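Entry type: protein chain
Record version: 2
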Amino acid sequence: MYKAITRDIQIVVMPQFLADRSEPDEGQFFWAYTIEITNLGRESVQLIARHWIITDGNGVVEEVQGPGVVGEQPMIPPGESYRYTSGCPLTTPSGIMVGSYQMLDAAGNPFKAEIPAFSLDSPFAKRVLN
């Protein structure tokens, strides 16, 4: 579990390698990640966009941006949470994701809520000890 808090918005990420959706012999590895966004503040906020930076095990970086998450732009009232699951394919057995959500506060002012960096590890990743 990975966690970050920005302006009373707590983001918790739980990644999981999906062996049944992966084909290691063909260089296809797939992870699901569940994200829970909790509004610890006193006013409603709305998630309007996402920005991901995905780095595979070879250091290749891909950026993904777009409106909302899983087709939604949820309003999150004080004390409430919004949870969703999405996925990430890679051609390497490990990688890292990090990003941010563009949020609007109750007055319509935009701010970024940081998504903590989280590791995408599979049983096929080679371990290196220093």
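Comment: The two ends are 25 Å apart (CA to CA).
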